[in-house]
Design a protein that fits this description.
The complex is a heterotrimer of chains A (218), B (225) and C (41). Chain B has one domain (2-166, 184-216). Chain B is 80% helix and 0% strand. Chain B has 7 helices and no strands. The chains are: A mainly alpha (218), B mainly alpha (225), C mainly alpha (41).
Chain lengths: 218, 225, 41
């Protein structure tokens, strides 16, 4: 497991150009969102938490797809399966994707604060939401990248399957970020975080359990 | 031959009941005190909603059965219930919009039930297109079974998160508050649609089964027969 | 009868029409697909 994790991290590090590309893509979507919402500064400020998560979600479809490229290109997955369990392969990739998405979110956070004049009111809470929210995206995203990447329409199928599944994670992450940015008079933050953690618990375990059905067959 | 007769029987029985129930609902049942004639949409809308849920529950059960037993029978039934479930949720959204416009004033509201149905429609349509883009029958069967299990596990989570997100929901009418002459067409239509659904799932699973056989048959054996 | 929505039959007919037209078309397509399967086993 540690060796697998090391391999994944190394691959991500070697593909640094892709990391910079994903970051640029996320920043570009932020710009496009603002143009689509108009030049009303107060409206943009209110929409900032949603924009943050949409940027992460859209950029994640690009990076998730790449996470199985190294194996699918030369059929190395079959060899890997012989040495380690599908669940270990899945968790190594999902952890790497999670770390990467959390890092992407951390970079976007000051950008959002500057672009939309959103004060980073409760930085501890915003960090917690970023970590929990990107965990919620990473597990189903990694599993769906594994199937979409080996079908005839990878770019189409990944968002088609992954977007509807992460609806609850997106709702909870946006709500909790809103409360982190703009204050929490009704004390609802912990409720949304609990929902996010429940989502993570369900899908990290379920995706791990189903990974053998997806990585072993065919 | 007998299974085809059985499906045909179920289908005709279902169509007859649907005709009778809709006749009662459209022309015999009294108009609702508040919603007037528009309320007649309920006699087709509520059975569609029930059956859509039943069919997606079946899809989940067939997906689990396939992963446990690895029998093609469950895969064929899984494919059938996915397609029919998508058909029913699609109809459900259209009927709901047509009922919502005259009563709420809008075609769509971000109510938890509506939003959950929309997410279900998207998830299961995605699984159908996943099946379409996979050529190997074994991959298609086990991958779509896994995604069906994930999408089904998501349904209650979506429902509760949307309810919390938009805590604005309307009352659900219970049978006690509904007049008995309104219950009758509802029941008849529900049973009619149930029988029709049984026939549709049977027929659709035979199609899935014969396609799978053709895909897996060795090309040489096909030429010699 | 105050507060009762008047009319609205066009919505009722549209809902029933779309539902039963779609169901009939689906039944028909299943029938055709089954026949096509039988003709080339």
């Amino acid at each position: 497991m540690m060796a697998l994790l090391h391999k994944e991290m190394l691959l991500t590090w070697r593909g640094r150009a892709r990391v910079i590309g994903a970051l640029t893509f996320a920043a570009a979507t932020l710009l496009m969102f603002s143009f689509s919402a108009g030049a009303d500064g107060r409206l943009l400020q209110r929409l900032a938490p949603g924009f943050l998560w949409l940027a992460i979600l859209l950029a994640s479809t690009l990076t998730l797809q790449a996470s199985f490229d190294a194996e699918t290109e030369d059929g190395a997955l079959d060899g890997l399966i012989l040495h380690s369990s599908p669940a270990a392969i899945f968790y190594a990739k999902a952890l790497t994707n999670w770390l990467f998405l959390a890092a992407l979110g951390l970079v976007l956070l000051p950008l959002i604060a500057a672009l939309f004049d959103a004060s980073l009111g409760r930085l501890d809470r915003l960090f917690a939401v970023l970590i929990a929210g990107t965990a919620g995206l990473a597990a189903p995203g990694t599993l769906y990248a594994a199937l979409a990447g080996r079908s005839r329409a990878a770019g189409l199928l990944l968002p088609l399957l992954y977007f509807p599944l992460v609806v609850p994670a997106l709702i909870a992450a946006v709500k909790a970020s809103e409360l982190g940015f703009f204050g929490d008079p009704m004390d609802q933050w912990s409720g949304w975080i609990k929902l996010l953690l429940a989502f993570c618990l369900i899908f990290w375990s379920l995706c791990g359990a189903l990974s053998s059905a997806i990585l072993e067959d065919g | 031959m007998s299974r085809e007769r059985l499906a045909l029987g179920f289908g005709l029985l279902g169509i007859a009941l649907l005709g009778w129930g809709s006749y009662l609902g459209l022309f015999v049942a009294p108009p609702d005190r508040y919603m007037g004639d528009v309320q007649r949409i309920m006699y087709v809308h509520v059975p569609t909603a029930w059956l859509a849920l039943v069919v997606f529950t079946l899809a989940f059960i067939y997906a689990v059965l396939f992963l446990v037993h690895r029998s093609w029978r469950w895969d064929a039934l899984h494919e059938a219930s996915l397609e029919i479930g998508v058909l029913f949720t699609g109809l459900l959204c259209i009927q709901g919009a047509l009922w919502g416009k005259p009563t709420w004033g809008v075609y769509w509201a971000w109510d938890p039930r509506l939003t959950t149905v929309a997410v279900m429609l998207l998830s299961f349509t995605g699984i159908l297109s996943l099946r379409h883009f996979l050529d190997d029958p074994l991959r298609r069967a086990s991958w779509s079974a896994a995604t069906t299990i994930l999408a089904s596990a998501n349904v209650p989570v979506v429902y509760y998160s949307v309810r919390w997100w938009n805590s604005l929901h309307q009352l659900q009418s219970t049978p006690k508050t509904v007049n008995s002459s309104m219950v009758e067409p509802l029941r008849i239509n529900a049973f009619g649609l149930l029988f029709l659904t049984i026939a549709l799932i049977m027929a659709r699973s035979w199609i899935a089964e014969s396609r799978r056989r053709k895909a897996m048959a060795p090309p040489l054996a096909k030429e010699s027969s | 009868m105050s507060g009762m929505i008047q009319g609205g039959w066009e919505f009722v007919w549209a809902a029933y029409g779309i539902t039963f037209t779609t169901l009939s078309l689906y039944c028909f397509s299943l029938w055709m697909r089954l026949r096509a399967d039988k003709n080339e086993p």
